[in-house]
Amino acid sequence: MTSARGAAAIVGVADDASPTGQLELSGRALEAAMIDQALQDAGLTIADVDGVCHTGSSMGLAEYLGVHPRFTDSTATGGSSFEVHVEHAAAAIAAGMADVVLSVYASTPRGDRARGGTGGPGRRTAMMGGPNPQAEWEVPAGIRMPMGAYALAATRHMALYGTTPEQLAQIAVSTREWATMNPKARYQEPITVGDVLASPMQTSPLHLLDCCLVTDGAGAFVMTSAERARDLAKAPAYVLGVGTCHDHAMISQMPDLATTAGTVSGPLAFGMAGLGPADVDVLMGYDSFTITALLHLEDLGFCAKGEGGPFVEDGKLGPGGSLPMNTNGGGLSYTHPGMYGMFLLVEAVRQLRGECGPRQVDGADVAVAHGSGGVLSCMSTVVLGTGATL
Amino acid sequence: MSTEARSSRFEPPVSEVSAPFWDATREKRLVVQWCRPCDRAVFYPRETCPGCLGTDLEWRECSGRGTLYTFTVNHLSPNPTGGEGPFPVALVELEEGFRMMSNIVDCPLEDLAVGMALAVSWEPLSDGRHYPLFAPAGDPT
Predict the structure, then answer these.
(1) What is the pTM of this model?
(2) What is the mean pLDDT of residues A237-260?
(3) Which residue among A166, A336, A340, B128 is least crowded, i.e. fewest CB within 10 A of its CB?
(4) Do B89 and A148 touch (CB under 8 A)?
(5) Which of residues 11-40 of B touch A (CB under 8 A)?
(6) Beta-carbon pairs below 8 A across chains A and B
(7) ipTM for the whole predicted complex goes beyond 0.95
């Protein structure tokens, strides 16, 4: 079997968010702005694009842009959609079925509310499609979604492995340390473990500061072949490995609430890359909630199953630590417009290019973007590397 | 449990395939689909077995006993059991080998513990059906 390792690269990125939590533009206008910035970042134009990815309708987006793509992908797996887009685009580019592929995301729940729209991530049930067993088997129990799903996972993890609220809180604290160095982050003031534990309980054991933000945000990326990437504006971030797996849609159907499908997607991606967790310089791990990030650390093999709590306790995820994670401030402190996976990729690419200013991780050659979509449902892992890793 | 229907619970819709489950609750019986070839419970109800895609499914009585797989105490939403304040949402692991989401009743919040023994308890719904709740079991299973 041929491998797509290093055959494609992310060559342009853009994102936007604001400390106010709100953006001026919305909808297609915001998407078009992100695409324009990502293409400029790459040194490409819209005329170069022959592949389009969008979580809503790739046809609608392409029509708006005036693109007639030969590669089209409307995959929607929630927050991990953009990692899956990278996977599909890398395969298509490696097979010669596409040359320049873009993906874009814009969501403005705050701005929509201010403008009198409905706002909010109301797409959760629609995303599942078809009949809606959730209305029959989950909603009647009064679970608060989505955070209740993650709370169920956290309680289970605590019972099995002795994970503590303090350990989960440390993830929010380390992530906030990174956010102090991102001028676009929603929250930039340092916090303590005590602050997290003192913030209002939402649905136990998750406190308010264990939960991601609800903010406006948008981003885009552009991919092309390794060959073409070498002649473009910025250093390519090569796609070294990809892997995806989902093992449920509803939380009550998750096979093991303390173990995610990252145990499948991670080894697939690392295997293709010929690398392992010890080789990772920057980890961008989806942090919808503190427990989400903790599960990724275990399931991708950064520590053993059940040892995530002690692993994060010493602050190694923060600036100067041995495993820099979510260096943009994450979904917990930077931005979280509903499907956060786009921002994982944008920051990973910028770290590999050395563009991150005060929060730059020295000598970052390997970055992992690990998306989680649905309610711990669809895991998609992307291993990216600089030219030195080819 | 009270014998009157509560107004605060979102009452589960009934799909064609799940009707036997909800009909059994009118007699306070808990039943589950069983795939005979795979010899396993199938939940939520489906037209085909998610193990073999076969249609040889029958309805079986459950013991109504299980254990608390995990839970969360919801501080944000109205209490569907009709009480005041935070309430537990749970995943219950039934003896027959499937999990359902429900609420735990008749148990102080501080006594909730993963692994505790539970038994089904019934809350009346407005149309004669009952919603399966779970309460601490008298003796461990």
Answers:
(1) 0.93
(2) 97
(3) B128
(4) yes
(5) 11-15, 18
(6) 101
(7) no
